[in-house]
Amino acid sequence: MEETDRYKTIKNSSEGLYKEKGSKFIARAFHVTDEEEAKRYITQMKKEYHDARHHCYAYRLNPEEPFANSSDDGEPSGTAGKPILNQILSGELYDVLVVVIRYFGGTKLGVSGLIKAFKAAANVALSAAEVDYLTITRSLQLDFDYLLMNDVMRIIKEEKLRVIHQDFSLDCHMELEVERGRKDKLLQRFSHIFGLTVS
User: Fold this and answer.
1) Torsion angle, CA of 189/194/196/199, rounded to 10 degrees?
2) Which uninterrupted H or E stretch holds 157?
3) Range of the domain at 190
């Protein structure tokens, strides 16, 4: 497995709390797989903490084509979303959303105070999360005649491949999940079986 096929994320949701001069910063971290899921959690946080003044967030998705987004949600520009995002980046995390909910405590913190508070809150939530290492995969489709079953299964066994779907009703069809970095090598191996179609 190529080292570049592995990436870091968090296993499940976690939370953290940071207090500064009466203001409360509640941070919630989530594992998300796309923008829609991130938006659903943000909406959920706005409902759950509907009495809070600010719901700032940042997320970073897709280790293959990294995409990040953040929002200050009414806080001075660059004081909330960016510090939250920087915590995700410094942890080298992908597929992660962090929402920090702020309850104002009556004392203004100033720009540097806000940056410090949002950064600290995000850090507490991410530190509480269980880190997970996932693998970037590709799928391989195999179509073949029953007579080739032994040859195909031998490679699957030797390479310790994961079968995610199979259908043996008319001919044989199998779908395998393989690490991105091994796909070309496996295509090469399967190409030696005459009569097997691989895509």
Assistant:
1) 50
2) helix 149-158
3) 136-198
87 phi, psi to nearest 5 deg: -70, -40
44 & 104 share domain: yes
User: Residue 37 maps to which CATH number?
Assistant: 3.30.230.30
Decide: 46 and 40 in contact? Cβ < 8 Å. Answer: no
Question: Domain total for the chain?
Answer: 2
What integer pLDDT is reported at residue 182 of this predicted model? 87
pLDDT of 108 > 90? The answer is: no
Cα separation, 147 vs 40, in Å, equals: 49
pLDDT digits (tens, 9 = 90+) for 40-96: 999 999 999 999 989 999 999 999 888 999 999 999 999 999 999 999 999 999 999
DSSP β-ladder status, 67-71 and 96-103: unpaired
Q: Do 102 and 45 lie in a common domain?
A: yes
* Residue after which a domain boundary falls, among 107, 134, 161: 134
Task: Say what the pLDDT of residue 118 is.
Answer: 96
